[in-house]
User: Fold these one by one.
Assistant:
Number 1:
Amino acid sequence: MKRVYVNEEWCLGCHLCEYNCAFANSGMQDMALALKGKPIYPRIHIEEGEKISYAVSCRHCEDPICVRSCIAGAISKEGGVVKIDRDKCVSCFTCILVCPYGALAPGEDGVMQKCELCLQNSCGEPACVKGCPNRAIVYEERGEEA
Amino acid sequence: MRRYVIIGNGISAVNCIEGIRSVDAEGRITVISGEKHPAYCRPLISYLLEDRTDQKRMQYRDPGFYDRMGCEMLYGRKAVRIDKEDKKVELYDGTLQPYDVLCVAAGSHPFVPRLNGLDAVEKKFSFTTLDDALALEQAVDKDSKVLIVGAGMIGLKCAECLAERVSEITVCDLADHVLPTFLDFECASYVQKRLEEHGISFALGDSVEHFGKDPSSGKNEAVLKSGTVLPFDVLVLAIGARANASLVKDIGGAGERGIAVDECMRTSIQDIYAAGDCTESTDVSCGDRKLLSNLPNAAMQGYVAGVNMAGGSAVFDKAIMMNSISFFGLHSMTAGTYTGELFEEKTDTSVKRLYTENDLLKGFVLIGTSDRAGIYTSMIRNRTPLSSVDFEMMKKAATTAAFSAGARERMFGGTV
């Protein structure tokens, strides 16, 4: 299955992926209208160390601990993609408590959201990958689960 | 064709079904469910009374789940005895369910102490099941005075969800602070303050001496050890839970407070597995054997039990106590064991505590600050050596950037 991977040596730390993610999931047509002057709630974020930066989004783990840990039965894995039913989520943050990658965070409404690979939004493929100026984020197959 | 029987129909039972079916598509699965409902999310009963969910959304799985999994459901039935020689489960109605492999996922029940005068209190409730919540909803109105005995998670979530529905709420606990299982006095004060801001009163460091009636008004009252008298209309008992371990312990199964299981979820009895709140297992953060009742553990144990019951191979050896809970928007997270050296960072609205010992992160408390806490949790569960990460960086914020380049490559460079 194709997943999002990062090449940290190529990441500029420009945060464009965060903006492209927030826009792709905004449901709006105009990026400036969607994002300008507002706090953004992307499903990908840049981690920065002293000399490194890289983007982190859901790993779509083979045995996702968030799926088993969700107290609302709101997170599931379908066709390899870990998805959240935001209608069921009660914002208890248990998924934040367990995700080893720090890949889940609440959206503007306080309800949890996560990367679902842009498969359900207007982008249709990961917007973070499409918009990365340095190909530091890629969408590809690397080893398949059984 | 293998015959699987599961006693219980909660979180661990559902995950056990999924574990079995990940290995064996054919075997016959029979589920003995004490409650008459399909599995639902018990921790959501307080959200139900706040209208933040409803009975449909709080279902743990979709309506087609049991059919798709090929389960025979025995709703409203209770297992009373296991015959380990003949490998049969006897139900309350006398019928027998033969099994090849059994999983006991019987959960826990609320502990109700003997309290003088309790029998005469008409409106008294526990707060652990859907039926409890629906009955409590019927019993309260905007004029109700509610007394909640127990300032643990269940008592406080009950208080939170009733805050807008009733006139007064008082929470009483023998401990001198709220959430005594997870928090010390100082950390608990943040949570208590938030609850008090929403009109909830506390009688802490005190306990009920007896229940009686006010002679003039005829109203219920609780007389506390301190002499304080608390009038009330509705009583909620949320003192604690006891593991439903007797089915296995009655037939010689090992265990102290729960059913002892190993990392494959095997009990000490051949072909009997157990999972969830009825079990005791090893806490990887300290090595002690204990009850590790929380929903994530129940789910992971159930799944591992199911895989192994069906002849597959799975282990769950990373259980710790962990908890994430919110009250009126204030989130508290705790994990592991609070031993060793303490790093603390406090503000007026938040606390971060990290406990380290022998080159390991042992536990943490995070109140009002929760970003990426799972990175800390995974360090406890995986026993990540602190010397392998930039822990000074990690103290400021949970970040995978503090891991070594090799560790980051394993985390982000391939399938995990």
Number 2:
Amino acid sequence: MNILANQPAIVSIWPRTREPGRACHSGGARRDFGVSRQTNRYGLGNSARGPPLRVDWNNTPMAGSGQDRSQDALVDATTARGRRGLPIPAKRSWTEWKNRCALSLCLQPVQDELRNFAAVHFALYLRRYSFRTGMAEGRSVQFDGDAWHLFETHLAVRNTRQGKKYKEWLFARLPGSEYGDLEALAGGAALLMRDVAREHLRCEYAPSNTISMGSPVYGSGDVGLLLGDLLPGSIDPSDEVARREFERMAADQARAMFHKMEQRVRVVFLAKELGISLAHAEVEKAAGCRKSALSESYQAFIVKAADEIKERFSDEDTESVRLLTVMILQELKVCAREWARTSAELGPLLSNAGRS
Amino acid sequence: MKKLPEVRIIRSSAHHRQMLADWLNEWRIDRALRQDEAEISLLAKRSALLYETGAVREGQIRLFHPFTDVTAANLRYLAVLRKGDKGGWLTAPFSRFDTPAVPGELKTGRNVHALRTLCVWNARALPLATLVRSWIVDRLTPRQVAHALAIHAFLAEGKVLSASLLRRTGPPLVHPLDPRFEYLDEERAWFSAMSTIQALDKPSDASGRAFDGTRQTLPLAAEERAEYGTSRTRPGKHRPGDKNPRKSK
């Protein structure tokens, strides 16, 4: 089943649920999805590539809210034939495009085939983004434009043959068998399309210009870090006495914490201080556990330590406590290095660091 | 009761806050679009292909050939900064992100997305055998090379950076659970692997044309080969009695 029987110049995902888009960070002018229907920021009108056609997601196996099924399951559902049910352009189409430099110089069937391919993959990446970032249906990601145009414009480093070596890269991946070549071209182009989608999303969903220090940090999970935790500020350099007093307090607190610390967490601090990977055999041997367990213990310790510091200095202002927390955590690495110097069993770890 | 001394905390700059927020947003998008690269690319990497590489020169921007898992799954660009010791070249990879993540990353000022941020912190010497497995795509200006080297000196030797250049680098990295550490680990891992990778193919001449693994460049099993310990390809051509026998290298 070809999910794109017609060639889409417009791909809408979760149609008719529009959300004003943010301004492109580097692009200058603002663009609202809901307003700019005639010309998008790439200068392509809806009719630039022929009459606008829509992908009818409601009649494809990928239809659904996307909230109750994983993206992979949705894509799996399209597995009718070919590459997981997605279109695979013929090798000669790719070759023609490579030889003629631009898709607009290719024959119409080739243009249609490659545009289809780009539109489907671009739409899938946007949808993956919507799903994985937990965007509600009302905040769907949409794109009214020619995905192939983005493909050719984002990937070229210069507007010369030399600046389009990504084409060489794409063809250098061919294993040499008929089916393998097709798969490699489609797979490689899909990977390139991901870069294009990433750049498009970056432009359209840039953070606002007023950043709060209380903004949550994506990816910090259960730790719940705030932006202010990552950028704690610094002590006024003119206040030397206070700075030294802060450092002394941080060192005292760190020593007390290190004294109560588990061996495996001590080893992590040491490895971080020495710049050795937690997956290193000597690190795992010294800690007595694998990298994943080490990472978990380390994270749990830091969360607990930060909570303790916050509680102990609950009367202080937030900025000072954030700074003290970071200073203590830095000081713990120094403690780990001192500990390693006096520990015979950590000799191999130290000598390894010396070699690297 | 207050226990900390009264101090004046200088808050991080709005510029750094904005940069970090932008970078975290890019990281979020990157994570969301991540997938099983081995599955989609089918590991279509090749170890020996015919390609023109051109002589390595300072300032070149190159695109790695897809000969490792990482370079087969992503377009990986790097800049050649200067000639190093032992025949290698000091090189730095470009970030896939638009915004510098850390103070060791430089906003180049270029318009092209893939070349906007240079990871000077990850600079290392690459052997020629690895570098030739890349295509030349563009050049850094001498000024851009100088900026990159100034940041390298700042990181390696603690030399002072100008305020204007400092403003084009990323925000400080201090918190141990900062997600940027994960990014740095990933980047360090693939690029350090490039510096130690064993050459599978070598340039055949000064033009930089590499072996392609085809009939024209690799001898067949039945062809005459050099004797062990010699560089000759036709054993027996120079007899022991010759006046100027070719010496083994």
